[in-house]
User: What shape does this take?
Amino acid sequence: MALAMSSPAAASSTMLACQSCGATLAFPAGMRTVVCPYCASPSVVERPPTPGRPNPSFVVAFVIARERALRLVQQWLTRSRGLFTHSGLRNATVEDVRGVYVPAYLYGSVAHSSYVANIGENYTETETYETSDGKGGTTTATRTVTRTEWHTLSGQHSTYARDVLVTAARGLANAELEAIEPYDLRALCRYAPMIVSGWPVEEPSLDPTQCLEMARGEVMARLRTEIHRFMPGDTSTGLNFTTSFDSESLELMLVPVWVLALRYDPQKPPLRIVINGQTGNVHGRAPLSVPKILVAIGLGVALIVGLYLVARYT
Assistant: This one.
């Protein structure tokens, strides 16, 4: 297996680690105290760089300005303030949206799969059946029914796996990155310090081997859908396949993300909202109010019991 990765290089910025969420960030020299963009923690401490961390090969630059990011978050909050959301969300104000370049690995390969599945071929036939005529007699009628003939099919399937992006940072979970994808990789450019100058840059904190396995997992999920579509016949079931990867590449890159850590309740962790800094895709999970949900359930149960009692004693 040929695995292409960026070569390690000496870090040119100050390494800081958030004591609250553990995100490893690179800031311009001289900065020692910042607000973490992931958890709104006001203090970070210096941590020496870990040997072997590669330099980025590529970067996607910010397109969305801070003012637009603020508007997008406000629109998301407006849509998310529902009947069962936490009441603190109604009073939450959007002020501290911060931009950060997040490390991610761009993966590509050739995937060779061997599969076996059950293939269904539909056919129609006419059947005769009897129905009651409502007068005690029966009548005979015919109808056309669709049936399926099944047979086993095995074969090979090869495809290119392109533009698979997985997080390289503990600060941003892969599910969150997936939620704000895709990035338009046609705008991808070679990394240069001037592109990220003035922005916080998070250093990769996940092992490349771990990221490689995440990328392969995403490819396998895509392959299941792709091979299903590749199947002949009218329907298929019981698909099983094994896959080997060839000509793999794994390149470290930086992607732009706007992050808001919104404190809506002093007793709860902040709500985190992330925005694709290139396209404006927004992701967050509005906190629900457990008391509101329990009250709604209680009212629903009381209503059902009330209707039952009314029906029984009237």
The chain has six helices and eleven strands. The longest helix spans residues 208-230. The two ends are 78 Å apart (CA to CA).
